């Protein structure tokens, strides 16, 4: 995969500074306040995997657990401040994991009511939408977690909204990419990477499982 770490850092620095600048054991908020080229590298190329999706309201489990289960260690145990995106850099596998933390709020508060995209762009926090769109600019894979056996229809509205944002920000993103050491095809595409969307459908707990959990949780 072509994804120079220096380019990724430069692009994140142009996102509004909402995160707490820190790097600890591979974990970092976005945007980071350090240069990725200073990190230990096996190669200058990495793969970026982003996760967005619903969290388990029963067990209070978040999508970050998918990353921790894969790595077999707790990498998101420390607080991440006000960061909308939290990340983890796995030097051994040359993987960068990014998790969008506001998906549930976005789906519930923003897309549950019937609104057109222009109303949404006007009423909602544009900065958070830019963070979500950012993942579609730098990721090689985006894992979308949805509960049930079918895709949550609110995601369809979300994808349409992101397409509207892409149109609005196309010129700004293209101008920024021209300042980075990127191949021409990246500039022409208006993104560092073209993500492959992967969908993970999780079945909700059964009624009996919920009742059992309530005994221990509550």
UniProtKB/TrEMBL annotation:
It holds the Pfam family Smg8_Smg9. The chain crosses the membrane at residues 131-149. Keywords: Membrane, Nonsense-mediated mRNA decay, Transmembrane, Transmembrane helix. It comes from the Eukaryota. One of its GO terms (biological process) is nuclear-transcribed mRNA catabolic process, nonsense-mediated decay. Involved in nonsense-mediated decay (NMD) of mRNAs containing premature stop codons. Belongs to the SMG8 family. This is Nonsense-mediated mRNA decay factor SMG8. It comes from Schistocephalus solidus. The gene is SMG8.
